[in-house]
């Protein structure tokens, strides 16, 4: 067979490359020749898989040597993070967020190191070959085998801040097994329970669209869909290509300069015509949303059948295709947590690592700005390309050129270690995290003590350590000699306690329940930060030796309570950083018990998500349910439709206002449903969504029937009422209606299909009273009666009926 215009297929073939060659072959040579090609590919695959004899053993699981370095680096960063929190430089939320970020970044870096290790040491490693082929498994599973399992999510989907550092080859310890049990159990529960929800969604969608069949070549609609082209980057270009490919143009496109027709009306957009129209700013295309047929959809409004890249044939069951396309990912992705074992995978910014240890050098005076990061750390933001040099010694030097808008974490001349994150590349658009839920975090006191020294600017709160004893207990203990002994012992241990008389305590504590026993004499308060120098002792000049100074550093943040010539007594204190807009529940100089709430702060908590979390959202949109939030009492598509209609009804005639309000809602629903699936990495063509949304918005309610045979309050198809209004002098007035998929299934043209779905007795009795006629237009009603279905070859035979 002689091939024409063949691309370069002389390379290693993985799953994606096989897809590309089959797609290209199908486009150029048709389905019959493609089946022969696929058959030959299958034979080659089986033959070579047998002769290769690929197997896997414990020796093939090679752990990269850089794992230890990365874990050591993470431990250093975590130590610094803990110290900053203890000194009151960051609050509790930033502290925990930073822990999650550090481990997540380490996990992602280790994933890259695994691939580099395989490429450099063993290209024919069976594990590496299996993973990259796309046949089975992915890098996430390999990372758990030879990297580290990383952060896990619990049964609620929340992240456990203690990561699993070991992999399956090294083996897990008891604590790590307990942590991983959460994810494994969640997977089993999801598999058992959530699959049914997904299956029921598919069933409802099938009953909505089972009558949607390609009935005519053209419906001659005047309505069209406007596509605005924005191709800022590769991702946007790909999205536009997916939207346009296989659609039919609703308006002829003329070149402005020459006046030539680029693409004419009714032309379908293929790869060749796409190159002509992609340079334009806006394009009008045909869409199932605006098809004028009362039953089914026309060929031009639907466009290509995505299975073979040709215009859908008459009798094609496109409704079933749409329902299955939307329902199928729900069933598949319910298993996602089960496959990965409940590990958490967040999005990580592009980081730049140090190639070796040494000192870092760059110019921080020009073409940049000193900034503070989200976690209150000092950093440098570059405005243009920046040269960074890392020098270990005269032989070992490295130069890195950083792109513009890069945050450099290391300061000039700072010593850095191997594989340390020295910089992070900023993106123009902030990456959206997975699901975020608003939570309340209570900031609690670690120790009992006294609140002092609250700065008003950044609200740094200090709690001096102390024991709190109730008034009654103190009254009893003051008569006990042992209590005095305890006080003296504490005095010797560098705690200063004032002797308290019973009478003075009684007078003082009439309106107070607690007292701090470790009372301080009224002296000037001197704050000491952790690792600050307390005193310097000069050593005498020795013969031919330099004079040295010894420095003493305190172990923790504290307050000086007494100073003598030889002794300095300090009292331990804990610092808490509280945001400017947050209230503090305890006032200055008050006693506070351990674990008492100092303040509350609101934050958004990151959770893992799979399609199980996505399904309720899709169901909510497709069933047009009411959702409640804080900003607005009810925020749902029903309210959106009513608001749009009321505002448009003042500007336009009734029919135009209804059409425009429905169009706005249709685009809103499609965008929202697509967003849920995109978060899962699932790509579904817009035209499948359009068929479902069209059925949901196809009904209107009559408000003023004028002199017609209809009654106010009756529901009717929008296409039908528009055709009736053309012949009437006094137009019927109506309002748009949005129905959920269950309601649509129970308001079909066929009462047999409705009775098969649910509420059988009610549907049949109501149909009998109304004297309904079933014209057997859809698939379900014909299957029930044992007729040939009006689709495929059955449609052609019964063509005269329609």
UniProtKB/TrEMBL annotation:
Domain RNA polymerase Rpb1 as annotated: residue spans: 11-61, 96-168, 171-747
GO cellular component, one term: DNA-directed RNA polymerase complex
Molecular function GO terms recorded: DNA binding; DNA-directed RNA polymerase activity; metal ion binding
Keywords in alphabetical order: Chloroplast, DNA-directed RNA polymerase, Metal-binding, Nucleotidyltransferase, Plastid, Transcription, Transferase, Zinc
Methyltransferase found in the keyword field: no
SUPFAM superfamilies named in the record: beta and beta-prime subunits of DNA dependent RNA-polymerase (SSF64484)
Documented EC number(s): 2.7.7.6
GO biological process: DNA-templated transcription
Protein name: DNA-directed RNA polymerase
Species of provenance: Euglena clara
Phylogenetic lineage: Eukaryota, Discoba, Euglenozoa, Euglenida, Spirocuta
